[in-house]
Specification:
By secondary structure, this protein is of the alpha/beta class. It has 2 domains: 1-39, no CATH class; 43-202, Thiamin diphosphate (ThDP)-binding fold, Pyr/PP domains (Rossmann fold). The protein has 5 helices and 6 strands. Strands 1-2-6-5 form a 4-stranded parallel β-sheet, with helices on both faces. A two-stranded antiparallel ribbon has the order 3-4. Mean pLDDT is 79; it is low at 168-194 and 210-216.
Length: 216
């Protein structure tokens, strides 16, 4: 939001519950928004921003503004029905939108390979006939370049791109995660930037790891 020209003082006022904040102090950190800047804000529901942004893209297309909607979400959010429904509509209607997954490899504290069989979230784009790209989230210039390409593709009326930036996790994403299980960067042999958590785990009987099949 700062990059879009947001007022830092109004943002801080919102965080401290002051009436001079963006949401008059009622939204807090989760709901800082400014429609004049094109910032629709976030919400407390995982993945809910994806269909909201898709709806915004439909409005942009209808009004022929030439603008592009961009929505950011985590890897675990791509498991929700809202992701699949929204991306499908975005693809069918050729909406001017870019779906960006900030993949830190963990859904709160659950490793990616424990809740999906694919290695890259961008692989899911193929199911909807749209482009899917993966970029190193630790490389600012690479992310910038990929963003320019994706936005241009969306603006030109091409298929809405689905990009996945994979920086890897360096801390737990929830304050509810106990300190002893805080996430540490994990790597696989041959690459210091490709976390092993992204590797799909072997198939297991009945869909559950052996360690979880025995429930008492």
């Amino acid at each position: 939001m700062i990059a879009k020209g947001g007022d830092v003082k109004r943002m801080m006022a919102e965080l401290y519950g002051r009436a001079t904040g963006y949401g008059k102090g009622k939204g807090g950190s989760m709901h800082v928004a400014d429609l004049d800047l094109g910032m629709l804000g976030a919400n407390g529901i995982v993945g809910a921003g994806i269909p909201i942004a898709t709806g915004a893209a439909l409005a942009l297309q209808y009004l022929e503004t030439g603008n592009v909607a961009v929505v950011f979400f985590g890897d675990a959010a791509s498991n929700r029905g809202t992701f699949h429904e929204a991306v499908n509509l975005g693809a069918v209607w050729d909406l001017p939108i870019v779906y960006v997954c900030e993949n830190n490899l963990y859904g709160v504290s659950t490793c990616q390979r424990e809740h999906m069989k694919i290695r890259d979230i961008a692989d899911r784009a193929a199911a909807y006939g749209i482009a899917g790209d993966v970029v190193d989230g630790n490389d600012v210039e690479a992310v910038h370049e990929a963003g320019l390409v994706a936005v241009q593709r969306a603006r030109s009326g091409g298929d809405p791109p689905c990009s996945s930036a994979r920086p890897g996790a360096t801390r737990a994403t929830s304050s509810a995660t106990p300190a002893p299980t805080a996430i540490r960067p994990s790597t696989r042999s041959g690459s210091a930037r490709t976390p092993s958590c992204a590797e799909p785990r072997p198939s297991s009987v009945g869909g559950w790891p052996a360690s979880r099949r025995s429930i008492s």
